[in-house]
Structure formats: C-alpha cells, structure tokens
Specification:
The protein is an alpha/beta fold. The protein has 2 domains: 221 residues, Rossmann fold (3-Layer(aba) Sandwich), CATH 3.40.50; 99 residues, Rossmann fold (3-Layer(aba) Sandwich). The chain is built from 15 helices and 10 strands. A 6-stranded mixed beta sheet has the order 1-2-10-7-8-9, sandwiched between helices. Strands 5-4-3-6 form a 4-stranded parallel beta sheet. Helix 9 links the parallel strand 7 and strand 8. Helix 8 crosses helix 9, helix 9 crosses helix 11 and helix 12 crosses helix 13. The longest helix is centred in the middle third of the chain and has 17 residues. It is globular, with a radius of gyration of 20 Å.
Length: 350
C-alpha cells in the first residue's frame, strides 16, 4: 500500500521552490464526513459534511502548511525555526521541526493556551517561551527576530504555509467531484480562509470545479474583521481563534467578498452548542473548530440562509483532545459503584 503526504500528492499544484525538502508525517487526506443528524435538526433538503482536520498527525490543519514551511526552510539550510502561537501552530511546528532535525522555538501568550497544545509542543522538543502579552504581541516579536537573524518564520505570514493549507480545498473537490456550494470555517489569524480560497480558485482554473461561497466565522469576543478594527484584548473560549489582529485579515475579507460570502461573529455559547452537536455525530472537536458550524446554524436560524439544495462543507480544524478542559471542567462526575452486577443493573436499567 502506498502512502503520501500533501507535498507528494499535490506537488505539481504547489508554488514552492525546487529546494523544498520532503519533511512529512503523511498529513492530509482527512475525511469528509456526512452529518445527517444535524441536517435533520436543521431541516432536510441539503447535504452537510465536516472536513475533519483533527485527524492530521498533530491533531490540526496546521500540519498541511507546516510540512511545506519546514521543508522549504530545511531545504535552504536553515537550522532553527520560530513561531508565535495560540497552540496548534506550536505543536505542528515542533513536530515537523523534530522530523527535519531543526531547532524549534515557540512563543505563546502566558495563560492563554490550552494545555493539550502546550504539551504537544513540549513533547516534540520545542523551546517554549511564554510572554506576558497577547498572540499579536508574540507575532510582532518573532517577525522582528527573523528579520535580524537566520531563523525561519513558520507562522502563516510564511507564504509556503498557505501553499500547503490550500491542499484541503483540492481534497474537497477531489472527494465531491466539484467545489461545495458553501464552505464554512473558523477565522483566527486568517491564513486558512486565505489558503482555501487560493486552492479553490486554482482548482477551478485547472479543472473547472466551480467556486464556493465562503462563510468565515469569528468568536464575538475576538472579531476584528467583523468590527472593522483590531481587538486589543480578545477573549473567547475558542482559544485557537483568540486573535485580535489577524496577520492575513485583508486577504480574508477579500476571499469572503470575492466568493460572494461574508465573515460573521458568533457567541461562545453558540460555539459550545455546536461542539456538543458535532459530538452527537461522533466528532469531538476543540471549541474553535465548531465555529464554522455555529455560523452556518446562526445564518439558517436567522433566516439569512436557505440551505435547501446546497452542498455545504464545514471545516473542523482541530481535534477535541487539543483543548479538553472545557469538557472536563463542566462534566458531571462519573457514578461510582461497587463491582456488583446488581448495583450495575439498578443504575443502567432504571
């Protein structure tokens, strides 16, 4: 059986330097999972799928871009890479740097990163530095460092990250046979929405797969693209999109406008409700990953979107194990029984 990562599978579609090395953990090829129970709840007459990016090697969509960014850096002889992160980028950069034998440094905002993501970065051997500040301040620092030292920046400001991330759009078209009518996804630093639009446009130029409308979704407490100005102190339970000044904000707005879509904001309660709804379908995602679905449901229930006849894809960007605290902190304590069949029957057969 033959396995391939996104660079091997789609290299001819990627605008990357010839020196780019193959640094892969066999990322990509994530499933497009039908969500029939949610369709029934929302009203029949349309198709709904989740692109479950939490099944990438480090549990998030970041691996698609990181395989290219790290491969390009390694191919030109760089010895160290650096990123600012709310968590997923840190874990992915650390894993792919380890694979390539490179040093990895990650800056994270102190107290603003999910433990599962921080643990990943540490496990893969990164040098983790916490700052008393926001993600945006951390990003400013790493950009400055890479301009003055031979260290490669692997945040989504690195164009090769987007080249890798756009492969998810290719996969959706390959699976469905054409682009969906509507794509819904979370928006944080805005690299992913930019990459998807790049991918859909490229595939349509080459294969006439059509173009989707794009619905980008931010958390209400971290919604600079909806508000029209930076948010100095972004706050949301969805840590992966807790960003007040998106690095690719302009490109995100362009993607939404050019596609005939838009960017909206939803509340934390709406995000958490859709995290639970996805779990009822058997998909456990981190809170930010449910934002795209939350936006779709909000638009349908507000009468702003009629989904009938549409083929809709929601992007679930990260696995629930990335940020389990919201579940474990609110769950009911398990029942404790003696090891007795009668006691068990009394509980489960009542």
């Amino acid at each position: 059986m033959s396995y391939a990562g996104v660079l091997q599978r789609y290299r001819s579609f990627l605008d990357i330097p010839a020196h780019t090395s193959l640094v892969t953990l066999l990322e990509g090829d994530t499933p497009l999972i039908p969500l029939p129970r949610l369709v029934e709840e929302l009203g029949s007459g349309f198709s709904l799928y989740a692109k479950f990016e939490g099944l990438n090697p480090t549990g998030s969509f970041k691996d698609r871009g990181m395989t290219i960014a790290i491969g390009e850096a390694a191919g030109r002889g760089v010895k160290s890479v650096i990123c600012a992160s709310t968590g997923n980028t840190a874990a992915s950069a650390a894993a792919y740097a380890a694979r390539a034998g490179l040093r990895c440094i990650v800056l994270v905002p102190r107290g603003k990163i999910a433990v599962g993501k921080l643990a990943g970065a540490v496990a893969y051997g990164a040098q983790v530095i916490q700052i008393d500040g926001s993600f945006d301040e951390a990003l400013t620092l790493v950009v400055d460092i890479t301009q003055r030292h031979p260290i490669a920046l692997v945040n989504s400001l690195n164009i090769y990250r987007l080249e890798g991330q756009k492969t998810a759009a290719f996969e959706i078209c390959d699976t469905l046979g054409k682009a969906p009518d509507l794509l819904c996804l979370p928006v944080g630093n805005a690299g992913n929405i930019t990459a998807y639009w790049m991918g859909f446009r490229q595939y349509d130029d080459l294969k006439k797969t059509g173009l989707p409308r794009i619905l980008g979704v931010q958390a209400a407490g971290a919604a600079p693209l909806v508000l029209g100005h930076p948010v100095e102190k972004p706050e949301t339970i969805a840590t992966a999109i807790r960003i007040g000044k998106p690095a690719r904000g302009e490109q995100a707005l362009e993607a939404a406008e050019q596609s005939g879509g838009k960017i909206i904001a939803v509340s934390d309660d709406e995000i958490l409700a859709m995290q639970r709804a996805l779990a009822r379908e058997g998909l456990w995602v981190e809170p930010a990953s449910a934002a795209g679905l939350a936006g779709l449901v909000a638009e349908i229930r507000a009468g702003k979107l009629d989904p009938r006849g549409l083929r809709v894809v929601v992007i679930c960007t990260g696995h629930g194990l990335k940020d389990p605290d919201i579940i474990t902190s609110s769950m009911t304590k398990p029942i404790v029984l003696s090891p007795d069949a009668g006691a068990l029957e009394e509980v489960i057969l009542e």
